[in-house]
Amino acid sequence: MAKPGKVTLSDVAKAAGVSSGTVSNTINRPESVADATRRRVQAAIRQLGFVPNEGAARLRSGSSRLLGLVVPDIASSFYAEIAKGVARRAEEHGHAMLLFDTGDDLDREVRQLETLARHRSIGALIAPRMADERHLRRLRALDMHLVLIDRPASEHDGCSVSIDDVQGGRMAARHLVALGRRRLAFVAGPVGVPQAERRLQGFRDAVADEVSVEPAVVHADSSDFLGGGEAARALLAMDPRPDGVFCVNDQLAVGVVNELTRAGLRVPQDVAVVGYGDTSVARSASVPLTTVRQPMSDLGRAAVDHLIRESEGVAESRMHHHSSTVFQPSLVVRESAPLPE
Amino acid sequence: MAKPGKVTLSDVAKAAGVSSGTVSNTINRPESVADATRRRVQAAIRQLGFVPNEGAARLRSGSSRLLGLVVPDIASSFYAEIAKGVARRAEEHGHAMLLFDTGDDLDREVRQLETLARHRSIGALIAPRMADERHLRRLRALDMHLVLIDRPASEHDGCSVSIDDVQGGRMAARHLVALGRRRLAFVAGPVGVPQAERRLQGFRDAVADEVSVEPAVVHADSSDFLGGGEAARALLAMDPRPDGVFCVNDQLAVGVVNELTRAGLRVPQDVAVVGYGDTSVARSASVPLTTVRQPMSDLGRAAVDHLIRESEGVAESRMHHHSSTVFQPSLVVRESAPLPE
Fold first, then answer.
1. Distance CA A137, CA A239 (A)
2. What residues in A contact B144, CB-CB < 8 Å?
3. N or C: which end of chain B has fewer CB within 10 A?
4. Structure confidence at residue B62 as a pLDDT band (50, 70, 90)
């Protein structure tokens, strides 16, 4: 049966023939202890199997070496990739990551931040479901360091990390135009998703620069491959039929490709299709997808750096200036919209 | 700037006109405090914005209300789904989840468990990359409660939760036989993955019960859709060609379906294909996959229950008996191997 904590700091001090303060210094500020003494203490720590107690260390130092990541759905590959970057980067800084899944519940999100405060987390990286001012005020009232993930900085007077969705839309448009496509269409799920709206904005702007005809816009009932099938049927009914389609995510794009193929059209010869996200379905699609890749892991790592900079700066009474990091997406070219020969 | 912890328990006690002990009781054992007093203390807590310190509470009670989840790759949908179940269930128990990604590094895995011990976590749920006895001994030497995830109990003298892979293989075989398929094949990635071997064992056993011919076994260089393409080319070269194929994961199955289709065969008419996992690619495949679904979220929830039962039992000096929970998978029938008409 496990009984962590049964060996105490004083046991180690006694065994090494030093004071408890020296043991503590060996653990927390090894450079302040003479080499021979430090080695003696470290040997005693190993021999007795002593595990320093972070809870006690925290009460003295005020720092928990814990940080929180709060996301709407950890089972979605977007947030799972971010979590991977956060976990790895936190570890490099000597911190551990507490992960919370809000399941899109605003009240739960607030309770989870309260839990993080109780654990004296240095702060939270949060992708709030609603980035409206009222909800963010509620979160900020909890008086902890918050770094917003995947939300533009203007919505938050704090640090933030995001990926340039407008630029992603522009990239998709420019690629389709470079392939010679002129009858363009944009496919998304339900109206009102901010990321989708920013991608549409970039797509529209870049199309307007190059082509005289406005792109068609199709909204499906769902943002998955079923929605893609539904959107494809709408595209097939258009006259003239689009020859270049940009979908706001890969699942929609796979649904579009499958349905167009079923209707006897060839992708990319008749219709070129571009997805978004470079998720696993993009690579394994029957026609592998050209898609916009987002640096999720980098995003997670940068979010950790922002939070640690803020919390250490404030702890050391240095002036902290909030900042935002915006990553550029990149285009991955595959068969659904290949490079011109 | 955030300064969590500036309001103390004594501030609340002063404001409410009670002792610090009463404030502590109101937080930890509300049922022991008279209604009127409790309401007065709670009002003071709200008014002052007091946040109880879990670190201090932990030093008194010995319980951190933290538990760890240690997985090889949080970006894989299998572990991300488990994490979702663990996070939700931990929360229901009033615990928070520390998540670690080992990235398949055995030494990192040990260091992460040490970190969990330092944070006085009640224990860890762990899907160790290597479930060999030597590595498990190393983990158990850390003297903390461990619940093994997705590893059979025999490999661990502790609690475990897993999904019956042998049964999953049996289900796939029985379904293909029920469809009238007699020339069966099994497709996996590299040799030596224990889960794949258990699925093959179940598949073989069930085939032997019903069909006189041994199934063909194909191993590809990778366990993804590229490996599936490679396996499909091997299947196409066989004489007689298999008419029913079971793949150990959905990515392989998608690769098989795409390559068979490219070669002019019809799925399921010429070859029925069954995948494993019911991941997102199963639903969005050009021919949606019949596949074996695993209850990942239930697995995560059960793992939390095992850990809490063990840690509370030991803390209260009750006898703890290790136990294993084995979940049954289920078959999801779609177009790649539909029910007989």
1. 48
2. 2, 4
3. C
4. low
Residue A334 in domain: no
Inter-chain contact A120–B55, Cβ cutoff 8 Å? yes
Indicate whether B182 and B101 sit together in one domain.
Answer: no
Asked if B150 and B87 sit in the same domain, the reply is yes
Contacts of B49 in chain A (CB under 8 A): 143
Q: In terms of pLDDT, which residue wins out, A51 or B166?
A: B166
CB A289 within 8 A of CB A334: yes
Based on the fold, state whether residues A283 and A171 are members of the same structural domain: yes
Q: What is the structure's pLDDT at B1?
A: 34
The residue ranges of chain A whose pLDDT is under 70 are 1-6, 28-31, 52-63, 129-132, 152-156, 341
pLDDT band at B132 (very low <50, low <70, confident <90, very high): low
A279 vs A77: CA distance, rounded Å: 7
B158 DSSP 8-state letter: S
Q: State the complex-level ipTM.
A: 0.79
Lookup result for tokens 């005693």: A44
* Over residues B250-260, mean pLDDT: 96
Residue B322: both structure tokens together: 């290790």
CA distance A94 to chain B (A): 9
Closest partner CB to A81 (pick from B51, B59, B75): B75
Total domains, chain B: 3
B49/A143 CB distance under 8 A: yes
- B178 and B154 inside one domain: no
Report the C-alpha gap between A319 and A125 in whole angstroms: 21
Matching residue, tokens 């931040």: A113
Q: Do B74 and A52 touch (CB under 8 A)?
A: no
- What is the sign, positive or negative, of the torsion defined by CA atoms of A219, A223, A227, A232? positive
Nearest residue, CB atoms, A144 vs list B2, B99, B285? B2
Interfacial A residues in 170-209 facing B (CB < 8 Å): none
For A253, phi then psi, to 5°, come to: -65, -40
A236 and chain B: CB distance < 8 Å anywhere?
no
Q: In one letter, which amino acid is A33?
A: V
Confidence class for position B83, pLDDT limits 50, 70, 90: very high
Quote the pLDDT of residue A1: 35
Q: Quick one: B46 and B35 in the same domain?
A: yes
Residues A23 and A169 in one domain: no
Answer yes or no: do B174 and B256 share one domain.
yes
Kindly indicate the confidence band of residue B32, based on its pLDDT and cuts at 50, 70 and 90. confident
Q: pLDDT for B95-106, tens place per residue?
A: 999 999 999 888
Looking at chain B, the whole-number percentage of residues with pLDDT higher than 90 is 61
CATH number at residue B95: 3.40.50.2300
Structural domain for A33, as ranges: 9-52
| Least Cα separation, residue B136 to chain A (angstroms) | 15
Q: Which of residues 250-289 of B touch A (CB under 8 A)?
A: 251, 254-255, 257-258, 261, 279-281, 283-286
Residue to test with chain A: of B54, B59, B298, most A Cβ within 10 A? B54
Q: CA-to-CA distance for B136 and B141, rounded, in angstroms? A: 9
| For range B20-42, the mean pLDDT | 78
Averaged pLDDT of chain B: 88
Specify if A333 maps to a domain: no
Q: Which residues on chain B are in Cβ contact (under 8 Å) with A81?
A: 75
**Cα(A333)–Cα(A175) distance, integer angstroms:** 9
Residues A274 and A310 in one domain: no
Instruction: Tell me what the mean pLDDT of segment B109-115 comes to.
Output: 91
Q: Report residue B68 as tokens.
A: 């760890």
The secondary structure of chain A in percent helix, strand, coil, rounded to multiples of 5, reads: 50, 15, 35
